[in-house]
Amino acid sequence: MYNEPMLRDDALSGKTIVVTGGGTGLGRAMSTYFLKLGANVVITSRKLDVLTKAASEMQSETAGNVLPLQCDVRNPDEIETVLKSSIEAFGGVHGLLNNAAGNFISPTERLSANAFSTIIDIVLKGTANCTMAFGKHWIKEKQAGTILNIVTTYAFTGSGYVVPSACAKGGVLAMTRSLAVEWGKYGIRTNAIAPGPFPTKGAWDRLLPGDMARKFDFRNRVPLRRVGEYQELANLAAFMLSDFSGYINGEVITIDGGEWLQGAGQFNGLEAITPEMWDMLEQMTRSAKGS
Ligand code: HXC
Ligand code: NAP
To answer: Using CA positions, which residue lies closest to atom 27 of ligand 2?
Structure first.
């Protein structure tokens, strides 16, 4: 049930959505569902060969209109070209999904200044570059628009070993909430999704290389004892970009099976205690009544 399409078939019909990092992983999965829902989709990233192959497969699968365009989110000129080409191809743009990201695990003291900047440049400044280009266009043309940013749960908790990414995603979350207010008057909605673990090659190769994926099994970290299904995320993203979510603005929606809360609750580690141990502990805690 949770991996079935949720929205009705025409939910995004007539809309053009630009998805950064749309040729791989979660960006591709979300883009494919947008196509199934009738949207025109522009997928962008640095590698045109990857995008072109993905676009042709997505087109065959959905019979939708998908346009692959090379664009490094660090380059404002390339973003302007994406905007212009999307409008030329489809007559306008209605949604921007800031999904492109760069990340890797490392103790922070091992990072060079350039390593830190590289992640900030892609994730925070790249999102800002795209957001400002699209926002300025919508404001100038007096058009409504919807921005959806993919963050992570450590955007609000922080996390060691991915500190540049945590700083960048935290900044994107601040941008989401700030622009929701500032640009609301223009009919521009700005929201975010914070996914928990959804295994992709891009993320797993960089965050759980080699044997780590087995040793650091994410399923154990999630109260629901499973990782996310791409369709679950695609359902949420499609809803957030559709007019059905028209009154949601400035929200970050977590989709992680309860993962971050499991890590946060002080006593959640008691999950490891067996019923026999609970019998003993109950006696001990009851006998503390008079102390
Ligand atoms: C330490 C590293 C490093 C590593 C790169 N660097 N990898 N430092 N440990 N593992 C350093 C380099 O030495 C260099 O610094 C600087 O970072 C830039 O590296 P480049 O390779 O030149 O950068 P670039 O070609 O722009 O590639 C960016 C990248 C790469 C981020 C390093 O991994 C990439 O292209 N990633 C895109 C896809 C991606 O990351 N997907 C995962 C998203 S997952 P010096 O000083 O030597 O010049 C995600 C999930 C979150 O965000 C939550 C999951 C649960
Ligand atoms: P992914 O497949 O590696 O996706 C990252 C995408 O970003 C790639 O398509 C990559 O394409 C593109 N990209 C990287 N640098 C870019 C740049 N400078 N300019 C333009 N595009 C660039 O990994 P993913 O797991 O699907 O991640 C997608 C999003 O979900 C990211 O925002 C990530 O932080 C978020 N997320 C993922 C998880 C998870 O469990 N997978 C959890 C939480 C959040 P090119 O290499 O061709 O440029």
So the answer is: 26
- Please list the active-site residues: 154
Is the residue at 21 inside a domain?
yes
Give the whole-angstrom CA distance, residue 33 versus residue 48.
21
Cα of 1 from ligand 2 centre, angstroms: 26
Query: Residue 57 is part of a domain; what is its CATH number?
Result: 3.40.50.720
Position in ligand 1 atom list of the atom nearest CA 218: 55
Does residue 3 belong to any structural domain of this protein?
no
| Ligand 1 neighbour 74 (Cβ under 6 A) | no
Domain of residue 94 covers 16-290
Alpha carbon dihedral 118, 121, 126, 129, in 10-degree steps, equals -150
DSSP SS3 for 227: coil
What is the percent of the chain with per-residue pLDDT over 90, rounded to a whole number? 95
Q: For 186-223, what is each residue's pLDDT tens digit? A: 999 999 999 999 999 999 999 999 999 988 888 889 99
Non-local CB neighbours of 87 within 8 Å, separated by 6+ positions: 93
pLDDT tens digits for range 19-37 = 999 999 999 999 999 999 9
Does the pLDDT value for residue 72 go beyond 90? Answer: yes
Q: Is residue 4 part of a domain?
A: no
**199 CA → ligand 1 middle, Å:** 18
Ligand 1 contact, 204 CB (< 6 A)? no
User: How many of the other CB atoms lie within 10 Å of CB of 282?
Assistant: 10
Any ligand 2 atom below 6 A from CB of 245: no
